[in-house]
Design goal:
With 385 residues, this protein is an alpha/beta fold. It has 17 helices and twelve strands. It folds into two domains: 197 residues, Rossmann fold; 170 residues, Rossmann fold (3-Layer(aba) Sandwich), CATH 3.40.50.12580. 41% of the residues lie in helices and 14% in strands. The strands form two sheets. The chain has a six-stranded parallel sheet, with helices on both faces. Strand 10, helix 12 and strand 11 form a beta-alpha-beta unit. The two termini are 41 Å apart.
């Protein structure tokens, strides 16, 4: 379905709905899936526990292709436009097409919580090919970024990276509230961990390795990574280890498409990444932002990056991951497996990494978000940072 039709459907709905009065209502919106997760799920849970309850509605869908899927997408987007025009507060977790077309009304506030913490590989206006970053659809993203009033960030350093990438003033970024999705990591109980291990069929007493590579986009030099040799990894680690493989949701071909060796479990479709981190003793990734959240657990995180030279040239990084990362960088499966088997790691490196990327992570970030953003905005006041 042509993008022009989508735009006009949003514009017309918004134009009519803006004639209605603003309601003291929060809209939690995501175009990533049909359900809320991460920051939005944490915020929803917190609002539901308040007395009196915080009025809110959910607009959650995944953009679809084909005429049938596109029509459903348009219906979701016009519904989103209606709520955008009539609600005091809109909170999203990723790119959201309606905000590329229209903005919130005067007296309303739009907040971007984003879907990850930290800033690893460069994106947006930070990329080496800045001209390409603002062409075509990316111009729409630049417009959408202007339509946000508040961006959450995990630290000042993160905020500076985001401000550059989005082309937005640093004053829009808030890093003193914390990130709601991290509360579960820093204040979980043992029952959560045991329950997740049971659902994943992880035998008792096993050391758990989580392999979670990033989504690499379509650039020719970085789209086909030299993945870990899972068979060799499992063989070298031995029967007292279990390897969980978590492919990025945007990667169509998951680990389940291949025959996995003994001791390796495909968890690509497991709904909650935080639970996977909680059950894991070691994280192995290439350039995924999951490495930031994992540092909150004070556990070993390793980078497997045999293509880092190509990736640096293609995308670039916000920091020197060989010098400032939480753990060593490896280019072969054998070397990584030997290091994991040895079971030694640098707690100081993890601490420095965590302190650089997280201003606050105390288990109360969601509570602060509701107290300092949600409640003031619903009352017609400005957010309290």
């Amino acid at each position: 379905m042509p993008t022009l039709f989508r735009r006009w459907a949003i514009i017309l709905t918004w134009g009519v709905a803006r004639l209605l009065p603003l309601r003291e209502r929060v809209v939690l919106a995501s175009a990533q899936s049909g359900r809320l997760d991460g920051n939005l799920a944490a915020i929803e849970m917190e609002m539901r526990t308040r007395n009196p309850p915080v009025p809110y509605t959910v607009v959650a869908y995944r953009e679809r292709h084909g005429w049938g899927g596109a029509l459903k997408t348009v219906l979701h987007e016009t519904r989103a436009a209606y709520y955008l025009a009539t609600s005091r507060l809109l909170v999203v977790d990723h790119h959201f097409f309606p905000l590329r077309v229209v903005a919130g009304r005067r007296g309303s506030t739009t907040v971007q919580t984003w879907h990850a913490c930290g800033a690893f590989k460069k994106f947006g206006l930070s990329r080496p090919d800045k001209a390409a970053s603002v062409s075509g659809g990316d111009r729409d993203l630049a417009i959408a970024h202007r339509n946000f009033d508040v961006f959450l960030a995990s630290s000042k350093f993160t905020a500076e990276c985001y401000a550059e990438a989005f082309g937005q003033p640093l004053e829009k970024f808030v890093w003193r509230l914390g990130i709601p999705r991290t509360d579960m990591l820093v204040s979980h109980d043992i029952s959560t961990v045991e329950s997740a291990k049971t659902r994943l069929n992880i035998p008792a007493g096993r050391r758990v390795i989580l392999y979670a590579p990033t989504f690499r986009g379509s650039a020719a030099s970085v789209r086909a990574p030299n993945n870990l040799d899972l068979a060799l990894l499992a063989e070298m680690l031995g029967e007292d280890h279990v390897v969980l493989v978590r492919m990025h949701p945007k990667v169509a071909t998951s680990a389940a498409d291949a025959s996995l060796p003994a001791g390796v479990i495909d968890v690509s479709k497991y709904p909650e990444i935080n639970e996977l981190m909680l059950v894991s003793d070691v994280l192995v990734t290439d350039y995924s932002s999951v490495i930031f959240e994992f540092s909150l657990l004070n556990r070993l995180a390793l980078l497997y990056a045999p293509d880092h030279a190509d990736y640096e040239r293609e995308r670039g990084f916000y920091f020197d991951f060989e010098q400032d990362g939480p753990g060593p960088v490896f280019t072969t499966t054998a070397a990584l497996a030997e290091y994991v088997r040895a079971g030694q790691f640098d707690h100081d490196a993890i601490r420095r990494f965590r302190e650089r990327w997280f201003e606050i992570a105390d288990g109360h970030s969601t509570e602060r978000f509701v107290d300092r953003i949600v409640l003031p905005v619903l009352g017609g006041a400005r957010p309290e940072f």
